[in-house]
Design goal:
537 residues, alpha+beta, Cholesterol Oxidase, domain 2, 8-stranded mixed beta sheet, 7-stranded antiparallel beta sheet, 22 strands, globular, binds flavin-N7 protonated-adenine dinucleotide
């Protein structure tokens, strides 16, 4: 990290803390006393996840004044318990986006309704967006998915990347953009010697043993959680986060989420302002070629307290696969941007996600202590008959439960489509349970083999409906505005000059591994081009 970057990070972190301390919804240069509220910026970014954060930093660095609109909250202020986020074991109003009850991926344990809890309505950090046959988990807040995800930072195999995105120069991606993304995100790996001995990863070692018994290979998975911090947690010299059951409702410590990396650096340029609790809902183009985004500002109860219009010369969409697709689909179908491509809304997929659990023999204990950050995956990606990457996931209940949990990433070629529903003014996903069966069949092939070799069985008590496979939700929504189809090969939206897509909507439904490194690297590539476009004007 260069000195300049460090200085920027510090300045940006200061801006975030100041906004939190003062209870402001606006973060950045406009936080300064007396700064005028400006609703026109040369660049406007929607969303502050991976795509939005990369856009904000690279624009700010280029000296382009930029506003970021984020529908979620800034997560920096501790609650009465002294913590910013709640844990998975004791969720409260901070856990979920305007819900009265949590909707965790695991529905039950031993068929008992002990996982989900009643909560108060609040702009909590995790959302579950429900469509028929598929629901999609997403992060809400300054940092998007980085606030709630498992931190696994995986670079896809080059062959599969090229198959999925043939219009992208792979040499440039693997030589420049993937390394740049990993460095900026702060990717690190667990110390193998510590991994082999710590009680916190016994669950991974047991699952590895069973995979190896079945002739399978495992691989260490890099992560953005600071493993040095995790070791201090284990030694008792640091406050527990990954070792304290924190993950899907946020990590209070240890995780290098985007607010600590890209967004801090973006704010530190002095050119970037983030408007939180602002939900963009419409985009139109003025006769002079500028874009105007209409956004609702909501309060902590979800009530719209103000509707604002933000003008810009260039618009960067980083609202995630669902958010970006919905905004463009609505703009096309309502006639606001009639020239958009018919490909908007197509090419969506859940990255072949399937979750499953296996029950062990009594002697194969997984340990009551489990780190929430996965570090090992079953890597059968090179199997031509059934390529699967299955991360060994934690189930941190604080008790021995003899369960191995997995998130399998299969290569499902099925794709879903979004249409615009004028009655609800929302995008509707067309994805059937039959389409998920392709992923289930692939996961079943892998785990049947592991069960057969270890004389073990599936768990039927975890996902509701006595199902051993959860095929009705995804953590990895991808596509909807696919690179090279809805956009050109550089993320420039066809039919809307000056509009760019920088997020997971660009990836055509599947990438074979956890996606945020790919999303970040593609965003870096898009922003190189976008900044060059801006400077060429
Ligand atoms: P994303 O990070 O979702 O950011 C979009 C942002 O836009 C969010 O902050 C939204 O609140 C905001 N937004 C949406 N609509 C609007 C609007 N209309 N107006 C204003 N703001 C808006 O998008 N991936 C990995 O690679 N490794 C993992 O270990 C991993 N674990 C995961 C665990 C969980 C529980 C979840 C939910 C996801 C996980 N993922 C993981 C997926 C990863 O977080 C996801 O692919 C990225 O966050 C997607 O990045 P985008 O920039 O596309």
């Amino acid at each position: 990290m260069t000195a300049e970057l460090t200085r920027r990070h510090l300045l940006g972190l200061g801006a975030l803390q100041t906004a939190a301390a003062l209870g402001l919804t606006r973060i950045g240069r406009a936080t300064a006393a007396g700064a005028a509220r400006s609703d026109h910026s040369p660049a406007l970014v929607i969303g502050s996840g991976y795509g939005g954060a990369v856009a904000a930093l690279r624009l700010g660095e280029a000296g382009i004044r930029t506003t970021v609109l984020e529908m979620g909250a800034l997560w920096k202020n501790p609650g009465p318990d002294g913590r910013v986020f709640c844990s998975t074991g004791a969720p409260d109003h901070r856990s979920m986006w305007f819900r009265t009850r949590t909707e965790a991926p695991l529905a039950t344990f031993l068929w008992l309704d002990v996982v989900n809890k009643d909560i108060g309505l609040y702009p909590g950090v995790l959302d579950r967006v429900r469509f028929t046959g598929m629901s999609v988990y997403v992060g809400r807040g300054v940092g998007g998915g980085s606030l709630v995800n498992g931190g696994m930072a995986v670079t896809p195999h080059r062959g599969y990347f090229t198959e999925m995105l043939p219009g992208v120069d792979a040499a440039e991606m693997y030589g420049t953009y993937f390394p740049r993304a990993r460095a900026m995100l702060g990717v690190n790996t667990v110390d193998p010697a510590w991994f082999e001995t710590t009680e916190w990863y016994r669950y991974s070692r047991v699952a590895r043993k069973h995979a190896v018994n079945a002739g399978l290979r495992t691989t260490f998975v890099p992560n953005v959680y600071d493993f040095g911090y995790m070791r201090r947690e284990a030694e008792g010299s640091a406050v527990r986060s990954a070792l304290g059951g924190e993950v899907i409702y946020g990590n209070n410590h240890g995780k290098r989420s985007l607010d600590r990396t890209y967004l801090a650096a973006a704010l530190g340029t002095g050119n970037v302002t983030i408007e939180t609790l602002h939900r963009a809902r419409a985009v139109r183009r003025e006769p002079d070629g500028r874009y105007v985004v209409t956004a609702d500002r909501i309060d902590l109860g979800g009530k719209v307290v103000e509707t604002r219009e933000f003008g810009c010369d260039r618009l960067f969409l980083g609202a995630g696969s669902l958010g970006t697709t919905e905004l463009l689909l609505r703009a096309r179908e309502t006639g606001a941007l009639p020239g958009l491509s018919p490909h908007i809304g197509t090419g969506w997929g859940p990255n072949g996600n399937v979750m499953t659990g296996r029950a062990h023999h009594l002697w194969d204990t997984v340990g009551a202590h489990q780190s929430t950050m996965p570090v090992l995956g079953i890597d059968d990606r090179d199997n031509p008959d059934n390529p699967v990457f299955a991360e060994i996931a934690p189930l941190p209940t604080g008790l021995e439960h003899w369960v191995s949990l997995y998130l399998a990433i299969t290569r499902n070629p099925e794709r879903g489509t979004f249409t615009y529903d004028p009655v609800t003014d929302a995008a509707r996903l067309h994805w059937s349970r039959a389409q998920s069966q392709v992923s289930v069949a692939s996961a079943r092939k892998l785990f049947d083999r592991i069960n057969a070799r270890n004389a073990t069985v599936y768990r039927y008590d975890l996902f509701g409906g006595n199902r051993p496979f959860a095929d009705d939700f995804t953590y990895h929504p991808l596509g909807g505005c696919v690179l090279g189809r809805a956009t050109d090969d550089h993320g420039r939206v066809r039919g809307a000059p000056g509009v760019y897509v920088t997020d997971g909507a660009l990836v055509p439904g599947s990438i074979g591994v956890n996606p945020f490194v790919t999303i970040t690297a593609l965003a870096e590539r898009t922003m190189d081009r976008a900044v060059a476009d801006a400077q060429a004007r």
